[in-house]
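Model it.
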Amino acid sequence: MARLVAEMTMSLDGFIALPDDSVNGLFDWYSNGPVAVPTARPNMTWHVTAASAEHLRRTMSTAGALLVGRRIFDITHGWDGQHPIDCPIVVLSHSVPGGWPREGIPYTFVTTGFADAVKEAMALAGDKDVGLAGPDVIRQAIDAGLVEEIRVNLAPWLLGEGIRFFDHLAAAPVKLEQTRVIQGDAVTHLYYRVLPRL
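Modeled.
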C-alpha cells in the first residue's frame, strides 16, 4: 500500500520560498556537484554531489504519484507538462485551470476535496510512495494523520520571511523520529518517521 511522504527544500529558519514565491538560493544544491542525475524532462539534468544523487535517485525510484497543491502547480506552470519525476501528478484545486487537462499528460485535477485527492493519488501510486509537495497539501495530510515520512532538504540560508514549510498545524505537536541524515553540499537531507499520535 502506498505511503504518503512529504518532502520540500527548506531554509534554516523554516521557509520554502520568499513572500513572492521566489526561492533565492535554496535550490543551489541541484547544480553544485559532479554527478549527473537525469530527470524525466529531456532538457533537465541535475548535477549534484554523490550524496545528494543517492537521495534524489531514492526519491525518484520510490515515487508512484505526486500530490501537489494548485499554488505550486501554477508557480511551475505545470512543469510544462512534464514533471522531473516520471509519475502521475494529482493536483488538488478548487477548479481545473484553463487549458487542462491535456491529452497524453498524466495530470489529474481533483476539485472535490483533500480526501478525494489522497484517494486518487494512492490508487495511482500502487505500492509506491505518494510524494506530497506544497505546504498546504502537506499541512492537511499531517493534520489528517496520513503522513508516514517527512524529508527536509535543509539549505544553509536564512530567508527571514516568506512561506513556511510547516505552519498552522492543527495536529501539533507531532513527534518525529530521525531515521537518516545525508550530508550533501549546500544541503543536508533529513529523513523523519512520523510517530503515532498518543
